[in-house]
Amino acid sequence: MRPDLAGGVAWLAAGAWMAWEACDLGLGSAHDPxxxxxxxxxxxxxxxxxxxxxxxAVRGGGDGAAIGGLWRGADWRKPLLAVVVLAGYAAALxxxxxLVSTALFLLILLLAIEPTRPPVxxxxxxGTSAAVWGLFDRLLGVGLxxxxxxx
Amino acid sequence: xELIDSLLxxxxxxLKPVNLLYCFGGVFVGTLIGVLPGIGPVAAMSLLLPATxxxxxxxxxxxxxxxxxxxxxxxxxxxxxxxxPGEAASVVTCLxxxxxxxxxxxxxxxxxxxxxxxxxxTLAVAGLMLVAxxxxxxxxxxxxxEYFSLMVLGLSILAYLSHGSLVKAVIMAAVxxxxxxxxxxxxxxxxxxxxDRMELVDGLGLVPIVMGLFGVAEILxxxxxxxxxxxxxxxxxxxxxxxxxxxxxxxxxxxxSVLGFVLGILPxxxxxxxxxxxxxxxxxxxxxxxxxxxxxxxxxxxxxAANNAAAGGGFIPLLTLGIPPNVVMALLLGxxxxxxxxxxxxxxxxxxxxFWGIVASMYIGNLMLLVLNLPLIGIWVQLLRVPxxxxxxxxxxxxxxxxxxxxxxxxxxYLMIAFGIAGWLMRKLGYEPAPLxxxxxLGPMLENNLRKALLLAHGDFAxxxxxxxxxxxxxxxxxLLLSPLVPRxxxxxxxxxxxxx
Amino acid sequence: xxxxxxxxxxxxxxxxxxxxAAADTYPSKxxxxxxxxxxxxxxxxxxxxxxxxxSKHLGQPIVIENRAGASGTAGPxxxxxxxxxxxxxxxxxxxxxxxxxxxxxxSFDPAKDFTYILNVTGYTFGVVVKADAKWQTFDELMADAKxxxxxxxxxTPGAGTSLHITMEQIAAxxxxxxTHVPFKGGAETNAAVMGGxxxxxxxxxxxxxxxxxxxxxxxxxxxxxxTRRWPDVPTLKELGYxxxxxxxxxxxxxxxxxxxxxxxxxxxxxxxxxxxxxAEAMRKFDMEPFYLSTADYDRFARExxxxxxxxxxxxxxxxxx
Lengths: 151, 501, 321
What we know:
The structure holds three protein chains of three kinds. Chain A is mostly helical.
């Protein structure tokens, strides 16, 4: 399936859903437009544009390559791994506290995705998290998560 | 003559050693928080506010104001270096600033941003001094109908924000508009698209969206292809803008300053709108619009001047009418009142030393910022020499810290990750994030003012064309939108927006 | 997953140190005070002054956390959903906490989800028009509104705020119709009335400086008595409307707090209210102290919930269920 075709279908669905949902919120009248008024028109606009994109794609416009082609020559595992580690970091931030979770996060990224020498990685991870914590929490007083260990 | 006396009075206040110190402290903290993504002037100023209770009012305001315009100065740094807009006003700076950095021209980009900020900041203070009361009165003529039309004008430049397909740019804008309306309806307090999630009642945060779409998405895209990215580490050319850079930037700087100053006076989002409009304007006026989005220095100079001038313009309604046009100014209003002062029409006559002291301190503060920032450019550029395998985990961490510190909610960190993934896929499919952000920022104001205007006009749509300011804005917007249909302009616009297809 | 991890970590911690009985040692660390408004506004600044004054008597710092949004209910809502009732998290309770649940679906129930500690203050509200407007008194404005239904528009800082509700109450009492235009906060309402986009504005004292500068005319204030700053301006009560609207607000914690802890907090805030730093902040922002004890505030909260339900019903703003 060509990317623009897939995109068009997705946007069409999103726009139609939006317009339908907006009707639920109430369109109101011109005298007193309701909560769904602008959302409804935005949804319709989105759907209309999706149709234009679909028409262009069907007529053979666009680059014509299949979706899979977008990843040709690219290593999708690295970004995926980065996303997983990032989500883990977000989940660990509050339970473990900023210092521990940040040091771990940096360490994993530094070692797993594009390997750095371990001593350098450890030094960087610990040093950076401590420095950032000092800057934000101590100096600027913004309050980073403390975690169960109290720091 | 009176003006000169007033200025002398102002400088006699601002040049007191203790006030110089507070001014420096303010701009220093401001620069720091400006460079750090996420944490904005609001957070820093509200933390500083209690600490100012003990010092004299003029010193307190000089300090707080310094934090604000100082942070505007530093905001472009991460946008240029690593594609993270620290605030909405720097989104446009990413478009060409980051491209310049990738071409080894981070130095000139940062240089023109700093010089542009200085020039615009100084012009804004001069404007504040000369035309403040008059302009503040003019700004009052903007009612809901005028705001609506201004937002339409703002949106009509989105075609100039993309260099890909126009259809895709408008799709992005529609999505941004919808995303901007998530949360409690500002008119009727009905929750919209919140899916019964408490986190969504206040709407989606701007910071997680821009950090995700720009910062995180950029990293994900870089990670999957090893070859390209060393370009910008290896080839750092000149550190300063060249004569040619200056020649190209002079016009954008001047236009951006005026635009930013005027729009900065209007309540709500002046800095953001002015930076977008400035970019659109420069691309429209340029003889070589195809360079935009690929590292055109005009695309950095104009918007940077605009958002810094807007920061200066924002002081006008506060100081002359006591009406704060944005959150930061509202905070400053609080600081005034805490110190027993009432900003408003009487401030200038009742407390001239304070009014003019603040104005004079802003001249001095802008100079301090320049002296402080120019040497830093060398250091920032060196940062790009750090290997990417070490740089990218640090950037990701700063994104997370920035998002977390700006709202204190882990939910926003997840939101940023989601927008990071979306941004990465979008750029693969040829959708650009800038129109989305523009519509996200303008959308809620567009909707809110449309509905208020119709309430006030009892449902009569003619209100938008009967009011002169509103009609002018709509006229310009129509001209921008219709210009591609006129054959003479068609060739030119095609090069502007439709290169790809 | 987060919860399980947190539970595991907590269990590990518990084996290391025996946790002492919480109420006896309270307070042993800083108390978080959730202020549901952005930093720097009048509510925020007076609450900061109160926190500073009360922390002296509490013996622990009181840290302000701004959690703005949802007409001031976001802060209490998040507290109700996530904070432990250990006395280390309390929140300012704006009147919208009692009102919004009748208007939209909220995640909290004001009758069940909070432990009310004490009431501290109320706002000064008033109606202003442009100084060159033709209405010299509030009665003239009302007469004009009566003669021209819907022609007179008024701005408020938002739908469902006390300003909006009270104006509709006034309109209902006199059988007239205004056009209500909700803005986003005091800055916008002032600009709108100054620019002549709305006929009048009902808001808290953000208009003070403009009234003093004779740019705006203050027609009426809504307190029980005339204000100290504008003693010549009559109150709604004097004009025969029988309405006092000052949107009182107090402090509450999550449900199920230990009464001993509540008493410690109540005493600290009560003493804090007597401190000059708080009185000074009240005066600067034209607010009036309005103390209610724990028992009184709890009763007041329950009465207010009922009263708001009736008002919201009467004005046709109730949620459709």
